[in-house]
Amino acid sequence: MSKDTVFSGVQPTGDIHLGNYLGAIKQFLNFQDDADSIFCIVDQHAITVFQDPEELKQNVYSVLSIFLACGLDPKKCILFNQSAVREHSVLSWYLSCTARVGWLNRMTQFKDKAGKNRDNASLGLYAYPVLMAADILLYHADKVPVGDDQKQHLELTRDIAHKFNTDYKKTFFKLPEPIINKAAPRIMSLRDANNKMSKSDISKYSRILLTDSNDEISAKINKAKSDSLAMPTSSDQLANRPEINNLITIYSSISNVEKDKIITLFANKEISSFKNELKEVVINLIEPISKEIKKIMNDKKYLQETLKHGSLKARERANKTILELNSAMGFNFD
Ligand code: AMP
Ligand code: TRP
Questions:
Q1: Domain CATH for 289
Q2: Which residues pair with 9 in a beta bridge?
Q3: Contact 87/318 with Cβ under 8 angstroms?
Q4: Domain residues for 155?
């Protein structure tokens, strides 16, 4: 049997946090050994909101350093940045003519990001999910490891693929499947468990970064919002205690210990004693990664070569798809 193709993307905006790691990057690591894996730093998605060019460039290097420090291996998977493969934009246009405005109007991420002043959002921010569909379909991906927040975009990708296949009367595209980490579908903010942990939250205390020092991690966990009760004694109590639920989820998904086991272990104990253990678990994960990031970040030559190598491989495959489509769509004249 042939290997599954796996594709995912991460935006080079802001700092990569524990939510990105547990929801996305940790899953990438599981795939790189057995699947045909492609991981993309989506710099063209980033410019849907204006980016300072120099900062954008540094952020691409920074995400690549994080990928490598977490253990992604350019010998096992393709690592590249989106703008290096122009076929992403080409397919995005083709698919824009397949996607329906009504479908895009339902996208909740656009509504959240555009806010009240929707008329002033860029057209790119609105069309963003079509570019995401292009990223995925360009490589005929079977599986897309993402956080829960991207599920709706994956459904749209499937709708677009299905309509394109129907319109052109041939199965060009597979319908890709979202792969969501059951242990950490959506890590919430440490300051407000109603919102996801996000790069754009104004409070730095809302998220733990993969570049944080041990002291920063401790301070953020100390400050993490909780309640004044003792630790829960059963999982039924978690529904009314979203902050504690989130902290237990983080503990569980890093340590791979079931939540029920953690609840039994800490039942009736003080929250501070649980937080102390949690700090240890998080620091054990992040300390080696953050040290490695600092090392790799200084090796610009290695970073540049890695991007070049990955882009070359991605371009070859992307070009093949576009040639096939051009011929089917009436765009070839030889
Ligand atoms: P982004 O930072 O938006 O580029 O997200 C990169 C990846 O991380 C995507 O697969 C997201 O779904 C995932 N992700 C972002 N925030 C979270 C979170 N709080 N919990 C779980 N996954 C997340
Ligand atoms: N939209 C994703 C996010 O904001 C990033 C992304 C872009 C992506 N293209 C993708 C994720 C393709 C998976 C597959 O997090």
A1: 1.10.240.10
A2: 40
A3: yes
A4: 5-185+299-329
Question: Distance between CA atoms of 126 and 107, rounded to whole angstroms?
Answer: 9
pLDDT 10s digits, 241-259: 999 999 999 999 999 999 9
- 188 φ/ψ angles, rounded to the nearest 5 degrees: -95, 165
Tell me whether residue 28 is in a domain: yes
C-alpha to C-alpha distance for 297 and 301, rounded to whole angstroms:
10
- For residue 41 and ligand 1, the question of a CB distance below 6 A is answered with no
Give the whole-angstrom CA distance, residue 234 versus residue 248: 12
Counting from 1 in the atom list of ligand 2, the atom nearest the Cα of 153 is 1
Mutate to test the pocket of ligand 2, among 5, 6, 8, 47 (most ligand atoms within 8 A of CB): 8
pLDDT beneath 70: ranges in the chain: none
- In whole angstroms, what is the distance from residue 246 CA to residue 263 CA? 13
- Residue 76 tokens read as 């096992």
Token output for 69: 């420090």
196 is catalytic: yes
Give this prediction's pTM: 0.97
